[in-house]
Design goal:
By secondary structure, this protein is α/β, with parallel strands linked by helices. The chain has 2 domains: 200 residues, Rossmann fold (3-Layer(aba) Sandwich), CATH 3.40.50.300; 173 residues, Rossmann fold. 42% of the residues lie in helices and 16% in strands. It has 18 helices and 15 strands. An 8-stranded mixed β-sheet has the order 10-11-9-12-13-8-14-15, with helices on both faces. β3, α5 and β4 form a beta-alpha-beta unit.
């Protein structure tokens, strides 16, 4: 696709854009038509550039007002979008005022600069943008033509919803709103109905689409210490880069320390680590200085690390919908990937839910030979189907006690066992 501005064509070539992704082919024409959009697209599908290219196409470089606002849920994702946006321009050819607003920056300096001039494209996190737009009234968004809400299921989460609602209400009524996410939860529907006008809805990602290039292996912990199971798992393969997800900062730190003690090259990154330190770690991750990265859901979406070969869920995320974000870190841009998940008996229903949503779950056991295939969640049902008719008859003939007494289970099982022996004995005599 040819862009209307030559500097965009040149920037695209310099960044290696030989052809547009499916998401970009579908989204860009609709943005050009100034339609509101709700785009459900998988991670790694190129959705960031699907909105950046048309934003720059519509941009009036001679107009010094704020023309587009992009909201992202985390500092890291906002910074990555900012970096992508900067790469689309060449200051020597066509300068564009693009500014990043995230926590941890010099607030006073930002305010003073905004009093002097406005960014043409503003990118930031909900809290920071709310502060500058509503509290300080220095970032003027009444001139904005396009609002992008990226990773909407996080950006419009209850933690940020008030801020985003306040930001949107300060913008013009004739505003084009573009909403992107891997999933569109029911909880954000009221916001979408309030602000979007007859939106086009593009569903370009399903669980089935997502897992075509990814093998999903589930390894039962059998109530063993997860760190021991993880250690045995890591001994079965050599990753190009493996990302290990934990549910909490404490769990991530413990897992990181365990792996580091083995002498492996490992990094730790989570929201509790200062931003500048996280930035340095991210730079080293992108240089492939590590074999393993232990993290929380801070890296489960948006952040582009194209070299990840393996994902390991040390713990399954509480929401099955977040599984797609984690596993989507690998198998990007049609590459193949592997996702390992440790699970316990209590997770059986969770895994069943993933299967219902289209994830093809393969089950493995750890043995002396490495990973070996094993039966899935229906193994118990299969055993019950193969249960001897004599055993079934014995269970039926021994009624369960109506009054529960101490030790009743043991006595009940003993009675069933005696009945089985009697029935087997009778069966033997008749043959």
């Amino acid at each position: 696709m040819e862009f209307q501005k030559e500097y965009l064509n040149q920037s695209g070539l310099a960044m290696g854009f030989k052809e547009l992704t499916e998401v970009q082919k579908r989204v860009i024409p609709l943005v050009r038509e100034k339609k509101d959009l709700i785009v459900e697209a998988k991670t790694g599908s190129g959705k960031t550039h699907a909105y950046l290219f048309p934003i720059f196409e519509r941009l009036n470089e001679e107009d010094p007002t704020c023309q587009s606002l992009i909201i992202a849920p985390t500092k890291d994702l906002a910074k990555q979008i900012f970096a992508f946006a900067k790469m689309l321009t060449d200051p020597a050819i066509q300068p564009v005022d693009i500014r990043l607003y995230i926590g941890g920056s010099d607030r006073d300096e930002e305010i003073e600069r905004l009093k002097l001039s406005q960014p043409q494209i503003a990118i930031g996190t909900p809290g920071k943008l709310h502060d500058l737009i509503r509290k300080e009234n220095v970032l003027k968004v009444h001139t904005t033509a396009i609002l992008v809400i990226d990773e909407a299921d996080m950006t419009l989460d209850h933690e940020f919803l008030f801020d985003v609602d306040q930001i949107a209400s300060a913008m013009p009524e004739k505003l084009q709103i573009l909403v992107f996410s891997a999933t569109i939860p029911v909880g954000i529907q009221p916001f979408l109905k309030k602000y979007l006008h007859q939106p086009e809805i593009l569903t370009l990602a399903t669980f089935t689409d997502h897992n075509l290039s990814i093998r999903h292996y589930f390894i039962k912990t059998k109530e063993q210490d997860r760190l021991i199971v993880l250690n045995r798992l890591l001994a079965t393969f050599q990753p190009y880069l493996a990302m290990i997800f934990c549910n909490t900062k404490a769990s991530a730190e413990t897992t990181y320390a365990w792996i580091k003690d083995t002498g492996a090259s490992v990094a730790l990154i989570h929201g509790g680590i200062p931003y500048r330190q996280r930035k340095q770690i991210m730079e080293r991750i992108l240089r492939l200085d590590f074999s393993y990265v232990v993290t929380t859901d801070i890296l489960s979406r948006g952040i582009d690390i194209p070299s990840i070969s393996h994902i390991i869920n040390f713990e399954l995320p509480e929401d099955p919908g977040f599984y797609i974000h984690r596993s989507g870190r690998t198998g990007r841009m049609d590459a193949n990937g592997i996702c390992y998940s440790l699970y316990a008996f209590k997770d059986n229903q969770y895994v069943s839910e993933l299967e219902k949503r289209g994830i093809h779950c393969e089950f493995r056991d750890l043995s002396a030979e490495g990973l070996v295939a094993t039966r899935g969640l229906d193994a118990r049902k299969q055993r019950e189907k193969r249960q001897s008719p004599v055993v079934t008859q014995a269970i039926r003939q021994i009624p369960k006690p109506t009054k529960v007494k101490p030790g009743y289970k043991k006595k009940y099982l003993q009675d069933v066992s005696k009945k089985q022996k009697t029935l087997f004995s009778r069966k033997g005599k008749t043959q």
